[in-house]
# Entry
Amino acid sequence: QSQSTARVKRLQKYQKPRMLFFFYSTYKTIELTNFGLFEKDTVVNLERAILPTTRLGGHIVSGHVDTVGEIVRSELKDSGKVKSLEIRYPSQFSKYIMERGSIAVDGISLTIVNTNKNIFEILLIPETIQKTNAKFWEKGVIVNLEMDILARVMENFFLKRKSGWKNFIPKFFG
# Structure
């Protein structure tokens, strides 16, 4: 049994008064996420999925982690109320990272405020800091990243169609 597997098994049991559940982490989850780095009492974000009848607002997040990133800068701003973070990510994901685009960091849907090569900046407001594990994010922390699902779907759609945009736009708007 590998050391990372042993660490994850300790975290597969979640218990609060009158609440207990288990989950299974596959090898792919360990490969793509920061789960292999978890230690006992690591705080994670859990949120129930929305219903099809739920009003959508903000970003669409699937919960499927694409890769991990490393926080390379953490700075408090606005009299300590806002936290600015810069996160380095693998360069192959650059095509999905854009200013004012969305990204999920440890499951938290956030807006990218700035980009520079393979680093993006996000801002955390007081509510996000208080209600999530973002309060523990500092320089050197490894976080899970989920790229903008709409950008990925559009890329897939147009890559599978040799005609690309030329034939799509007249049909869609015509």
DSSP finds five helices and eight strands in the chain. Strands lie at 13-16, 19-22, 67-77, 82-88, 102-105, 108-116, 119-124, 142-146.
